[in-house]
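Students often ask why we bother encoding 3D structure as a string. The short answer is that it lets us treat folding as translation between two languages. Here is a chain of 335 residues written in the first language.
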Amino acid sequence: MSEYTAQDYKKGQPRWCPGCGDHFFLSSLHKAMAEVGVAPHNMAVISGIGCSSRLPYYVSTYAMQTIHGRAAAIATGAKVVNPDLTIWQVSGDGDGLAIGGNHFIHAMRRNIDLNMILLNNRIYGLTKGQYSPTSPRGFVSKSSPYGTVEDPFRPAELCFGARGHFFARAVATDAPSTVEILKAAYYHKGASVCEILQNCVIFNNGAYDPIYTKEGRKKNAIYVEHGKPLVFGENNEFGLMQEGFGLKVVEIGKNGVTLDDILVHDAHCEDDTLQLKLAMMDNEHGYPVALGVIRDVEAPTYEVSVAAQIEEVKAKKPYHNFMELLATNDTWEVK
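And here it is in the second language, the structure alphabet:
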């Protein structure tokens, strides 16, 4: 396998606001591309419309910025006709979950081998600050001056509900974790969703302040890793235990709680009950935000199944090309 560096995948000068989470993510994507070692000409980056959807201009791979909300549809077609192509599909929360929501859930359901990146800043940034499908209830914006009266989509819940088999989450400013989940998404065969939490410094700055710094993540986030205990805190002094149908935070070493009592993360479990519980945790309800690969389960992929079905049908037919097809009907020769 050829060795590549992040520089091999870089192109152009990004035109995002200084401090935008897109800058952080783009750098991590370049690193992840280099580490998986797929040649640039065997990759495609496909996006929709929005600030984050400008990303295809800044990668030295095949790339295409499509129309609003249709990134998953275009990416699906590209993958089916060329299953060997590695596709990174990039969308924002508006592009991916509003006008593109239908394509998002069906890409999950069909389990198409796409690396689907959801850059979630909870705002429409390109169109100057309207609330998005992930903005919290009561959020004040240019399109909701008195606060939105809608409940938001929670991407993990939507992914799991659409029978998704891979879900991971990282904070844009946390490069090592972002690179690792991108690599995990690449190695997973099927639809992979990576939710990237990032601030829009102009229209929604501070949306993820509790976990946007390394120090904040030590206190307010938990890094989940398959086969490892679910512990967190500045000194891993806290952990998660199951309580009824939910989870509870406990302090290790107090009230008889030991490390043996702490849940061990199972990302490969087909039953997604506990995985969804982890993905839905938030600081507002006294839980840490889960970061890392939360679900990673094998399942048949759409493009492989389509190719196998075509070969199966072809094997049963008396013709295998156009000339043989013509010969199956009555023929005559004109002299």
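Translate back mentally: The chain has ten helices and eleven strands. Keep this in mind for the problem set.
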